[in-house]
Structure formats: structure tokens, C-alpha cells
Amino acid sequence: MKSCAVGCAILLSLIGSFASGQAPSSAEPSTPSSSAPLRFAENRYELGRRTRALERAWMNCRDADRRAAAIPRVQTAVLGFFSGNTRLVAETLDETTTALQGQTPDSADRWAAALAITPARALIDLREPALEVTVTALYEPSVPRPDLVLRLTLGKTVMTVPLPAATPLPHRVRVACERAAQDMDTGLEIAVGTPDRPARHMWRVGVSRVRDLARRLAALETALTTVGPAALPDGFDIERATLTTRLKLLKALRDNPPLETDLAAVRLLRDAEQLVAALRAAPPRSTLTALTGDVLLGCPTATGILPVRALANPTAPVLIMAFHGAGGSENMFFDGYGDGEIVRLCRARGWALACPRVTSPLDDYSAVVERLPARLAPQARHIFLVGHSLGAVTTLVVATKYAGRLAGIAPISGRAPWTTGALKALPTFVAAGTKDFSRPGSEQLAERLRAQETPTMFKLYEAEHLLVVPDALPDIFNWMDALVGQRSG
Fold it and tell me: What is residue 237's three-state secondary structure?
């Protein structure tokens, strides 16, 4: 799986707040404009793409004044996300990114940045002759719209689309699909500019093309009815839950524009078909052992199937379980929070990572903690929990139940649950931003842990509620390195 240019996220990064924080901006909530922006839920991908750009700019910026000026803007975007104000969120993210980069955009740059260019569907059949694409503006910059030009590239097809200032938005075009014999995870390459500078802004939106799409998805649907609990030995419930999760996602990609991040649908489809073949074998077997790399699983719980995105490593000595913030998804730590900073840190150490979807601290995560380690990192001797915002509270609640299995926990921008007694001997790293609305809760949490003599590290970062995560993660991993070294010694 590869993230969007993801919220991904989400997200996507705002998306987990996935993304989030606030400071008043001059932009007020707007009434519907002539650009007819898409509904907020349909802009999750675009908000994730913009959030990731912001995160990259934040991580690359070493100018303290620019960073300080960005904090109230990001807080504005965060609260705009939770209030459903797409225009405010998108415009604030774009403006903050350019400010962090030290750029002064002209009217063409501002309008090019405001555009969203969206394929009608993220997964199509190889036989489809063209891909419908919608061009719209997520917001209207307060400057006249200039004549723009788009360059859309899909495989070997390159299409130039003039977009004069008078062109009504949304505007729809069809991009021809080249003939292909094999499935492919590809993408729509986008360049937006002016006749004199045709590539002012460039990005990519993932699109997957597969042969016999309808037949293959129907076959997976049928397979779900033939590999039910009665047809499989005990212990195959994760396999069935994973097949259900993958099929549901593939159907969503077939029926919708990109959801919140770029996903390798060809790989998802291939893995689902291989799992079906293994479950139908005599005797049934699993493809979910000795996993390696980026994988999507489904965990059966007391309330339903819990999607989990993971970085599997059969030789990993450490497994990190990361719980995202409210509004996010299992993609958030992979595609947001510093543009996937936790994934880079895990890869650099050869560690494994599991990111379940979080909706409540009281959800059932028992299968994630008790059963997934054997699938994702069978040699891991150390398990750490990391969480942000709602995920930080989830981290504390889960750790209360499983403290004896854990090497340490790192709640970021969270607050104490009703009791912390079970965490007394568990090393804990508490982090928050200096301008973080969760700072008081984090400070109280650290005080409570220290009062009961829990080994506690507490650190504040010059950031708000969202961007504190990528700032804190390197320190958290260094802290975990030390704990792993002590235990190994």
C-alpha cells in the first residue's frame, strides 16, 4: 500500500485528530460557492494529501519563527476539520504549507493549489476505455482566477486540458486508458500551471486496473459463503475476517473515487485470491503466517471485524502497536503523523508495527494484543504501545489490561483514564505540545504516574495537537531503544 500525496488521512492527517488543532483565521465558514465543492466526506483524500504536504513542510522547516506562526493556523485547520468546514481546512493547510516553505505564491499558484482533480473510481477494469476525472476547487482564493492548463498522464496517455478562467467548475474530462495485458497499480499523474509555467503544482492520485474485475470480485463474494466457520477448523477466524475486510475495501475502491489514501488494489485482490485458494485447500491452510511488509488484516472482536494495517517482519525483535486519534483510520500512522514517520523509524530498526482502527478506548482490542504478534512479529520479545489523542487514551486503557505483556507505552496528547494503578511498573513516555489543547491532560497524567512512582518521561514540544506527533516520535523511539537495550542486557 502506498499513501496519497494520505489522510490520510488520513489523515489524513488532519484526519486523525487525524489530523488536528485550532486558531482563529481570517477565513470564515463559507456558503456554497460557484465552484460547487464536493461534500466534505468525499474530500478526505484531498485533505489527507494537503495535510501530508504540511507535515513534510513542518519537518523540513528549521526556522523557529515560521514554525511558531504556523501553529495557530494548524489549530484553525484542526477545528475546521471537526466542524466539517472543507473550505477552511483546505485553504488553511495550503497557506500554512507555503508559509513554512518561505514561499510567496501568486494568483496562479494559489488557484493551482486550490484545485482537486479526482478520478471517478480508484479501481477499474482493464477493458474500460477511459477514466472520468472531475476538476473542481475545494475553495476559491480571494484573487481573480487566471487561465490555467492541466496535464493529466495515465500510463502512456498524456492529455493537456486548457482551463480558461471562465470555465465553470466542476469540469469533467475523460482520460483514455492504454491497452494493457496485466493488472497494474498505477496512478494519474497531475500537473497544474499556466501556459508559461505548466507545472507549478504536481501530484499523483493512485488508480488500479485489473482484468475481469466484476468476475473476480463476485468470486470472492461467493468464496466468503463457502469458507464460513463451519467449513474451517478452529483458529481460522482471523483469515475469514481478513478476507471480509479486503473484499469490502476492494468493492469500495471499485465504486468510489480514492477513499483517503492510495492503496495497491492489485496487491489486495491478489492476496485475497491467494487466501481463498489456501482456505479451500485440503486441509485448509493460511497465507497469514510469516508475513512481510505492508499488509491489511481483519481482527474478529466482540463487536465486529476490526481492520488493522501492519508492517510485518518475521524476525523483528520489537512490535509497536499504534492507536490513532479521533476521526482517523488504520492508515493514519502509515500516511500521516509526519508523513509516515513511525513507519520510517520502525523500518530503520527492523521493527514491526500494527495500527488498528480506533473508534473508542473501550473497543475490544484483545485479538490485536493477544493474537496478532504471532502473525506479524513471531520473534518479538518486546511490545510497546503508542497513541495520539483518543489513541493515547486507548493506549492507557489497553495497557491497564495488558501491562504485564508490555515493555512500555507512549501516550501523546492524551489524558489519564479513571485509574492508573495497573501502570505502576510500566515505563511511560508522556508527550504534548506547548500549544496543544490536550496539554493540561498530559501534564496531569505525568503527575499521577510520577506520584505512584511509575518510571515516567515527560516532554513538551513547540507544536500544537497534530504536529507534536512527528516531533515526539524520534525521542520516543530513542527512549524505546534504551529500554530494549536494558532488557536485552
Answer: helix
DSSP output for 391-427: HHHHHHHHHHHHGGG-SEEEEES----S--GGGTTS-
Query: Please, are residues 433 and 468 in contact by the beta-carbon 8 Å criterion?
Result: yes
Q: Name the pTM for this structure.
A: 0.89
Q: Tell me the pLDDT tens digit for each residue of 255-284.
A: 999 999 999 999 999 999 999 999 999 899
Q: 36 is in which domain, residue-wise? A: 7-107
Domain boundary among 42, 76, 107: 107
211-236 per-position pLDDT tens digit: 999 999 999 999 998 887 777 788 89
Q: If residue 202 lies in a helix (H) or strand (E), which one and from where to where?
A: strand 201-210
Residues sharing a CB contact under 8 Å with residue 184, sequence separation 6 or more, in sequence order: 155, 208, 209, 266
The predicted-structure confidence for 120-168, as pLDDT tens digits, reads as follows: 999 999 999 999 999 999 999 999 999 999 999 999 999 999 999 999 9
Q: Do 347 and 260 fall within a single domain? A: no
> Do the strands 184-193 and 456-461 form a parallel or antiparallel pair, or are they unpaired?
unpaired
Residue 248: in which H helix or E strand, if any?
helix 237-255
